[in-house]
Amino acid sequence: MEDSSEKYIQGKLPEKEHSTFEGKLSEEESKEMAFELGVKSGVELAVKAELKSKVAQFERRRSSRKIAPWQLGVAASILLIATLTFLLKNGSQGLYEEYYSPYPNFEVTVLRGEDEGALIAQAYKAYDEAKYGLAAEKFAEFLEQNSENVPSRFFYGVTLMEAREFDAAITNFNLVFESDPNDYVDAARWYAALSFIKIGDHTSAISLLDQLENSDDFGERAKKLKQQL
Amino acid sequence: MRISFSKREHDLLERIRSGDEKAMERIYNEYRNEFIGWGVENHSISEQDALDHYQDTITIFFEKVMNGTLQEIESSVKTYLFGIGKNRILQQFQKENTRLRHEEGVHEHYRFLAEKELNDIYTSAIEKTAGMFSLLGEKCKEILKLFYFDKKSMTEIASVMNFKSEGVARTSKKRCLEKIREEMTKERNGG
Asked: Is residue A160 a part of any domain in this protein?
């Protein structure tokens, strides 16, 4: 039965055997099956969201690499300054690019037929579509009336990082820590640490990374990043 | 005549299947400009819309390669990508919701979910799992991904994750499911 259940959930049980299998399920087993199928769909959606976020990252890297011919002189100067900065800061700026990717949104899914016009729905929709400038505007507007909303505060912080406004991002992540406990404390510490790296404040970054040492989701990354700093 | 992937493309697909980010980025960059130009010229859409379609198309492509749905196709990667892209543009696929489409597909396959109580459990489990997946811890994420997304057997999961037996893999998966169930119960009880 265990093996058949696994095959059924994974879609490996032949279609013609479905009704026989379903007919044998007790009421409790049917509920268990519904639960696991939901978990399966949830995992598939989460993995897909991670893939989509990765694809958006590829696009951002392209944009950051694109230089027009007339900009070459300027680029050379920037490169010189960047090299000096890199040497002065022990190469840690590259770490930001290595470790940063926008946090996937599982907070709000806008379903067809639902109120897509709601401000918060527009904010998350723009975020999902990697339109971070628009998302930042919508989150800011929403937070004016809902300043205690922790998830929006957190995602607003990430959109500010996308806009390279790292000080403002840190201010928003701080507000997320201050509302501890909540689901975004560890994520906010991680993104704040990356923001501090970007502005060259390693002491604050290390302090935050230390606090993440026992985090299930960020612990390993935090230890690795700290060693590289 | 059956045209299969060239060896180079075949190797790239293998690398994507194993999660190699450089190979994914290479494919992304290889077809991006051509796809956007094709979308703008042949389907009269804006450059931004064409880019959105491309990103969705390539995400679907990576997903299918990684979960094993796409192992062999009778065309090149380019033909396949442009095929998905064309369908998306024609159907204005991007305006529909990913999750809704996903659920419709599942309901078609598992008809017993039509019963309201079971459908409620199913929907609630989706929301909870998608919402807490990134917070589940690396081990749980890996087991659940291997089982539900990669469709690996318990024996394969035991081997990949260095468990002593498939029994240990099964128990570990159950523990991960319990974490999600506990969160669902908490939510139902208003905690």
From this structure: yes
**A164 and A101 in a common domain:** yes
Give yes or no for B102 touching A (CB within 8 A): yes
User: What pLDDT, on a 0 to 100 scale, did the predictor assign at position A110?
Assistant: 57
Angle, helices A119-128 vs A150-162, to 10°: value is 40
Task: Answer yes or no: do B14 and B91 share one domain.
Answer: yes
For A174-217, what is the HEC assignment? HHHHHCCCCCCHHHHHHHHHHHHHHCCCHHHHHHHHHHCCCCCC
Residues of chain A with pLDDT under 70: 1-2, 63-93, 106, 108-117
**Residue that is last in its domain, among B63, B95, B127:** B95
Tell me, yes or no, whether B107 lies in a domain: no
pLDDT at A83: 46
CB of B138 within 8 Å of any CB in chain A? yes
> Any chain B CB within 8 A of the CB of A98?
no
The model's pLDDT over B101-152, given as tens digits with 9 standing for 90+, comes to 566 666 666 777 778 888 889 888 988 898 888 888 889 999 999 999 999 9
Given CB atoms, is B96 within the 8 Å cutoff of chain A? yes
How many domains in chain A? Answer: 2
Q: Which segments in chain B show pLDDT lower than 50?
A: 1-3, 93-96
A71 domain residue, yes or no: no
The burial of A46, by beta-carbon neighbours within 10 Å (0-12 exposed, 13-18 middle, 19 or more buried), is given as buried
Burial of B50 (0-12, 13-18, 19+ CB in 10 A): buried
For the record, the structure tokens of A201 come out as: 């404040």
Structural domain containing residue A134: 79-228
Chain B residues within an 8 Å CB radius of A109: 97, 99, 130
Q: Supply the pLDDT for residue A70.
A: 53
Give the range of the structural domain holding residue B123, as residue numbers without chain letter: 118-188
B102 CB neighbours in chain A (<8 A) are 41, 44-45
Interface confidence: ipTM more than 0.85: no
Chain B from 53 to 72: CB within 8 A of any A CB: 55-56, 58-59, 62-63, 66-67
Q: Are residues B167 and B132 in the same domain?
A: yes
Structurally, chain B folds into a number of domains equal to: 2
Q: Both A125 and A191 in a single domain? A: yes
Main-chain dihedrals φ then ψ at residue B26, nearest 5 degrees: -65, -45
For residue A69, being part of any structural domain is answered with: no
Last residue of a domain, one of B42, B62, B95: B95
